[in-house]
Specification:
Chain lengths: 420, 119, 481
């Protein structure tokens, strides 16, 4: 059995930032296990620009953002095993993994950081009736084919879902010579960044159809077309609005799901809204010594925030390794309501010595809504924002001192929306 | 006089901008913005819209068949497809390093095409 | 090429019959119009072994169902196919239903179904804790079970090949001539000559029969739609759960699958004679399944659905149609195996033996060969191995250490095995049916492109020549530059 102070599962932006931070905090033996052939995670195929504006103060492409961390990992004594899949986390923080160099690995770790990222919702989960023709795939799969393998997965394309990957792929496929007929979005607003709507759709002359969905796929072998329809306020197709659109490819960009199979197997408690682990302000999960960060914890909009969160987890794991705390922690529980779908972290140690950034997402598009953080009658934070949207992650900072002084061990983040 | 409506992308608020231009395309006024950045965005978009262009270039003998690339600075929006042609015609030999200039001064834009990863 | 026997259609029946006849000293070919075996009804059905109380006593369906159910364990063991003898429950919601259970019991008894029992609400609750409160009792049939139908087809085909049979894929038959006691079958890959033909063409069996002038039956494609749920719903259902039967069939059922998912369906919609390629799922059909399931297990949620699909049953037009398994009246050397709708999968092992006997009657000149191998070597399933066995395996061949499909934990070694097997996978869906790579919750989102890469490498083709399931189901177009 191999022994490490810290095993990081996942070598994407989250795993690398967490490992580097832990190293900086003095952790000696660190191992990153990455299932792909290289470090970098999904950034390797995100060749577009727009990364790093917050963290590095400059605009980088995905591979460039990843490279800055890969270089640091390579320069450090952090060990890395790529093409390595973790199969299980057993009791006593024993990680079982496999690859085609070492065969089966059994690794004992003092602490573990989960940084497995997320996956795209597939067609099956969407329940679109119709044929099982080829040419229906997630936008991310198409992105890999185009940007890594160098193949076109289609020529005449409809994209369902206006998440950022869908928008990015609309432009990417157009630049490579495909005709992107339209992007259909079920909701009355796009889940993507405004900048992507302008630069990926408007620049390329691609229509964005809001409150519109694909209700049927056609074609027996290769996709030949889709039927689209407008939807009502309950997101149900409106009879009479059906329209046939000829296409050979349907790309899906309809949501991301944190990859928490290992987390669940390990018996860690999952938040039903984020589909990620319930964590404290150090990103420690319900299992002592196991931390989580990045898209496996909550789906982020910007990688810059992933880096930030992962550094918190890295520092948290380092503190755990140094002190081996015992006994139960006393927590303030954090939750969202009135338009706030969730808040991460869900728990804060009463004794926290650092200010805590509460990340959250809202349920709808709100203008001039007030963000309020309160505990019983006590208001800890209150600020009006000109615009809030589900596609953008929000945060507020709560002072450590305020948390220590709370009478009720509960914090609520909510919105006060002006009446129309 | 002509007018143009656009949504500002400088920040997530997304102000709806209304721009008035004279017949030579000179910006006369910008309204609807809530900060200075909106005005600058509107003027840039109306007079000289530029974009970063990213794509891939084919590589011979590398660990992967293509290497991702970007323009070293934003290029005129209207030149994107012309630059794509130049990028698509380029073939380079491995090894390619991050930051390597693969095409210099692509389509007289003053921008280079540079590799954004190793292959 | 000249053969003694040509079997048309590599579904579960065609494959099992080919295997059965490969026990004899003869040259046999299995012709399949698709790029793989099990591409019709055999890949999209309820995947269950019926105990045998549904069919009319005295019918061929009744006889072969009960025989098939008792043979299934043996065959699955010999062929290394996932099979679980979990038993079935027909659930009653009213006293009328309870009366129907009595009738089913009587019928089952007449058909020779062993060990049935009518159980109380309390017993039912113990066996199915999540069952609706409205359920008041059930018919328990312990001989029912679940099986992987396409793996059974693949395994039977592989075993037949091992015993000398040839398989020709992409070889749809479009014309048959009979001259001098010899059939000439015009196929997409050339003319095949054979002394005997066995028609296992599923929903197309009537069209094949027509080629020799046999117009005695017509096949109606009867569509059934299904939902497949994530493995994390596994705890919700322990047995095959049926409604009381109706005219259109056995109604919608809920069952665990042999691999631990939950399957629910099918609907039963008769299509036109010329809609035999229509495998579209429909809003209406899926809604029927969704709503129906709620009445059985209210807590079961289609939110955890990983895919939906449709299959076509080969239903012979007319009332109370039975299996049609007999030499054609138009030509005694041509055996029809037609109308094999439910319980066709269950009956398949018995059908193979039954056809074997018919064949012996019409062609007694062929002797049994001594060298017949009854077993198909078990494919390596890495995630079923103990830690030590797995370690030893990876030590020997590192490719079993490289996981390709994350969701199902399938390794590169297993995928290569599936491609290199006798009658191995040639397309992405073929790899999926043989190994389960891409069957999991991400539905090939991550591993799809890797499987394409491995197929291209192992078959010596370009990635853009690899298809999802043959013909024009290509996945990629040209290179980007």
């Amino acid at each position: 059995m191999l022994k490490y102070d810290l095993v990081v599962i996942g070598g994407g932006p989250a795993g690398m930032a967490a490992a580097l931070k832990a190293k900086e905090c003095g952790v000696k033996k660190i191992l990153i296990l990455e299932r792909a052939e290289t470090l970098g995670g999904i950034l390797e195929q995100c060749i577009h620009a727009g990364f790093g504006l917050h963290y590095f103060g400059e605009e980088l492409t995905g591979p460039e953002y990843a490279y800055r961390f890969i270089e640091q990992v390579e320069a450090s004594d952090i060990e890395v095993k790529v093409d390595t899949m973790v199969l299980e986390i057993r009791t006593g923080n024993v990680v079982i993994a496999t690859n085609n160099v070492d065969g089966m690995l059994e690794i004992s770790a003092t602490a573990i950081i989960l940084a497995m990222g997320c996956r795209e919702r597939p067609r099956g989960a969407l329940d679109i009736p119709g044929s099982r023709a080829s040419g229906i795939m997630t936008a991310g799969t198409a992105q890999k084919y185009v940007n890594i393998d160098g193949y076109m997965p289609g020529k005449k394309i409809v994209i369902l879902g206006s998440g950022d990957i869908g928008l990015i792929m609309a432009r990417r496929m157009t630049l490579e010579g495909a005709k992107v007929e339209m992007v259909c979005e079920l909701m009355p607003f796009s889940g993507g960044l405004q900048r992507n709507i302008v630069q990926c759709l408007e620049d390329m002359g691609i229509p964005l159809k809001l409150s519109c969905t694909v209700i049927q796929t056609h074609g027996i072998e290769r996709l030949e077309g889709v039927t689209i329809a407008n939807v009502d306020e309950n997101r149900r197709p409106i009879p009479g609005t059906e329209q046939y659109v000829e296409c050979d490819t349907l790309l899906l960009s309809v949501g991301l799901i944190p990859e928490n199979e290992l987390t669940r197997m390990a018996g860690i408690i999952i938040d039903p809204i984020t589909n990620g682990a319930i964590v404290d302000e150090n990103r420690q999960t319900s299992r002592p010594g196991i931390f989580a960060c990045g898209n496996v914890l909550q789906v982020h909009d910007l990688v810059d925030y992933v880096t930030e969160e992962s550094q918190i987890a890295g520092a948290g794991a380092a503190a755990y390794i140094a002190n081996r705390p015992r006994g139960r922690n006393r927590y303030v529980s954090v939750s969202g309501k009135d338009g706030v779908r969730y808040v991460v972290p869900q728990n804060i140690n009463v004794s926290t010595e650092q200010d805590v950034k509460l990340y959250f997402r809202v349920a709808d598009v709100y203008r001039n809504a007030r963000i309020i953080v309160e505990s019983g009658d006590k208001v800890l934070f209150s600020k009006k924002k000109p615009k809030l949207a589900p596609g953008e992650m929000e945060y507020v900072i709560i002072k450590a001192k305020d948390i220590g002084e709370l009478e009720k061990k509960q914090l609520v983040v909510r919105l006060e929306v002006p009446k129309q | 006089m002509t007018t143009r409506d656009m949504i500002c992308v400088s920040c997530p608020i997304g102000c709806a901008l209304h721009v008035e231009l004279d017949d030579d395309g000179k910006v006369l006024s910008v309204s609807g913005n809530t900060c200075k950045r909106g005005e600058k965005y509107a003027i840039d978009e109306c007079t000289n819209p530029v974009r970063m262009l990213t794509s891939t270039v084919r590589v011979n003998g590398g660990s992967l068949p293509v290497v991702p690339v970007k323009t070293s600075k934003p290029i005129p929006k209207g030149k994107m497809f012309e630059c794509m042609k130049a990028i698509n015609n380029e073939v380079v030999d491995a090894p390619v390093k991050l930051g390597d200039v693969l095409i210099s001064d692509v389509c007289d834009t003053g921008a280079d095409i540079i590799a954004t990863n190793e292959v | 090429m000249q053969y003694d026997v040509a079997v048309i259609g590599a579904g579960v029946c065609g494959a099992m019959i080919t295997r059965e006849l490969s026990k004899l000293n003869l040259k046999i070919v299995l012709l399949e119009k698709c790029n793989d075996v099990a591409m019709g009804t055999s890949k999209a059905n309820s995947a269950i072994v019926h105990a045998g109380f549904d069919a009319e006593p005295g019918s061929l369906k009744a006889q072969l169902n009960v025989q098939g159910a008792s043979l299934m364990a043996y065959y699955c063991n010999k062929l290394s196919v996932p099979y679980k003898n979990i038993g079935s429950l027909v659930v009653a919601y009213s006293w009328d239903d309870m009366k129907t259970l009595d009738e089913l019991f009587e019928r089952g008894f007449a058909n020779g179904v062993p060990n049935m029992e009518i159980i109380s609400q309390e017993q039912l609750r113990t066996m199915e804790p999540y069952i609706s409160d409205e359920a008041i009792g059930a018919l328990w049939a312990p001989t029912a079970g679940i099986v992987s139908p396409y793996e059974l087809t693949v395994a039977a085909t592989e075993n037949a090949v091992l015993n000398g049979a040839r398989v020709k894929r992409n070889s749809g038959v479009f014309d048959i001539e009979f001259k001098n006691d010899m059939f000439s079958l015009s196929t997409a890959t050339g003319v095949i000559k054979a002394k005997y033909v066995i028609n296992c063409a599923g929903v197309f069996a009537d069209q094949i029969a027509k080629m020799i002038g046999d117009t005695s039956f017509k096949i109606i494609p009867r569509k059934g739609e299904y939902y497949l749920l994530d493995k994390n719903e596994k705890k919700m259902v322990n047995h095959v759960l049926f409604h009381c039967p109706s005219k259109m069939g056995k109604g919608i059922l809920i069952t665990p699958t042999a691999h631990g998912n939950v399957l629910m369906g099918p609907t039963a919609i008769d299509l036109d004679f010329d809609s035999k390629l229509d495998l579209d799922t429909t809003i209406e059909g899926l809604n029927i399944v969704k709503n129906d399931v709620r009445t059985v297990i209210p807590a079961l949620s289609t939110r955890n659905c990983i895919t939906s699909f449709a299959g076509l049953r080969a239903h012979i037009a007319g009332d109370n149609s039975d299996f049609l398994i007999a030499p054609s009246k138009a030509n005694g050397h041509f055996i029809n195996v037609a109308g094999i709708e439910s319980p066709g999968l269950t009956a398949a092992p018995a059908i193979a033996r039954y056809v074997g006997n018919i064949f012996h009657d019409i062609a007694p000149q062929y002797e049994r060969k001594e060298s017949f191998q009854t077993t198909r070597p078990a494919p390596i399933r890495v995630n079923e191995l103990s830690d030590d066995a797995r370690r030893a395996l990876v030590e020997k061949d590192k490719r079993y250490g490289r996981i390709i499909c994350r969701c199902e934990g399938i390794t590169e070694g297993e995928i290569i095995d599936a491609i290199k097997a006798p009658c191995g996978a040639r397309d992405v869906d073929g790899v999926k049916r043989r190994t389960r790579a891409g069957m999991g919750r991400c539905q090939g989102g991550f591993c799809g492109s890797k499987v394409v890469e491995i197929l291209a490498r192992e078959l010596g083709e370009d990635m853009n020549e690899i298809t999802k399931f043959g013909n024009n189901s290509n996945i990629l177009y040209e290179r980007t530059k």
